[in-house]
Design brief:
- It is a single chain.
- Helix content is 28%, strand content 14%.
- The protein has one domain: Spore Coat Polysaccharide Biosynthesis Protein SpsA, Chain A, CATH 3.90.550.10.
- The relative contact order is 0.16.
- Helix 5 packs parallel to helix 8 and helix 7 packs parallel to helix 8.
- It is α/β, with parallel strands linked by helices.
- It is built from nine helices and ten strands.
Length: 308
């Protein structure tokens, strides 16, 4: 078993600038490679070999994003094969606008409430080899999806975006959110002995065949943390790539800083203490129950006539 060390040659398009322009001692922050698994020599990819074409699914959890979803779908790269939109019982025309922009979009209704439930529904329905999650509010640019797909096609299992790597950034983070995120990042790095630069950011991707190993159970915004921590605990090969967060285009965010920050903190503590997966208990929304049809009653089996 040998360690694959020629990582830079496998991901040529992710570095925002030439390595020579990186200040001394800072090269490891341009692309943070985390928890690399040992690979057999036969598994190492040859430099210059074109990766096999793999299908890409983009999943988008939505809730009242009528004024934002068009911008997201119109900027979807042509190499995306499938878009799965999970609607959280929107009161506006989110679904209608999405279908008008992209007629082939797969639209699902989530069973419960919360971003985590919507993400789990979307992940289960996605059919692509590679799955990318992106927000519907315009804060994440679909033009960056190639950054999240390229590492997956070159040996990585899970890719997370970072606003704090060279080439990344945010014009949306408030001082309070920035401070809270930094504290949670330090806690995560301490708990799991890694060197992440960002945590509470939902732009990520993974190989679909890794979904069972992720064993997701979260219902709310803590799904972003659970994805990362479960990828660590499953010993997946993880890459962190730069991403730029934009301001929400229209409307008010569904994120609540203190409430969701507490949920992330509880998730980290639980995952640090508990080793076995948590059982999934979904509180089904009453509107979903109304839509589901009761199974048809089976016809009674006719009794066999007795022989004379």
């Amino acid at each position: 078993m040998t360690l694959n060390r020629d990582i830079g040659t496998h991901i040529p398009n992710l570095l925002p600038e030439s390595p020579r322009a990186v200040p001394p001692g800072q090269g490891d922050h341009v692309l943070s490679i985390l928890r690399m698994q040992e690979r057999a020599e036969g598994d190492a990819k040859e430099v210059g070999v074109r990766p096999e074409r793999q299908t890409v699914s983009v999943v988008i959890p939505t809730l009242n994003e009528e004024k934002n979803i068009a911008w997201v779908l119109e900027r979807m790269p042509p190499f995306v094969d499938e878009v799965v939109l999970v609607d959280g019982h929107s009161h506006d025309r989110t679904v209608e606008v999405a279908r008008a922009i992209r007629p082939d979009i797969v639209v699902l209704t989530q069973h419960c409430r919360g971003k985590g439930d919507a993400a789990r529904v979307a992940f289960s329905a996605a059919t692509g080899d590679l799955i990318v999650m992106i927000d519907a509010d315009g804060s994440m640019d679909p033009h960056e999806i190639h950054r999240f797909v390229t590492p997956l096609m070159n040996g990585y299992d899970f890719v997370k975006g970072s606003r704090f790597l060279a080439g990344g950034g945010s014009t949306d983070l408030t001082p309070l959110r920035r401070t809270g995120n930094q504290m949670l990042v330090r806690l995560t790095n301490s708990f799991f002995l890694v060197h992440f630069t960002d945590l509470c950011y939902g732009f990520c991707s993974f190989r679909r065949d890794c979904l069972p190993a992720l064993a997701l159970t979260a219902h709310g915004f803590e799904i972003e943390t659970e994805l990362v921590v479960h990828a660590l605990k499953a010993n997946l090969r993880i890459a962190e790539v730069p991403s730029n967060e934009l301001p929400r285009r229209c409307g008010v965010s569904n994120l609540r800083t203190f409430r969701d920050g507490q949920r992330v903190l509880r998730t980290l503590i639980r995952e640090r203490v508990v080793r076995r997966p948590r059982p999934v208990v979904d509180p089904i929304d009453h509107r979903v129950l109304h839509q589901w049809q009761a199974p048809a009653a089976e016809p009674a089996t006719p009794m066999l006539s007795e022989a004379p």
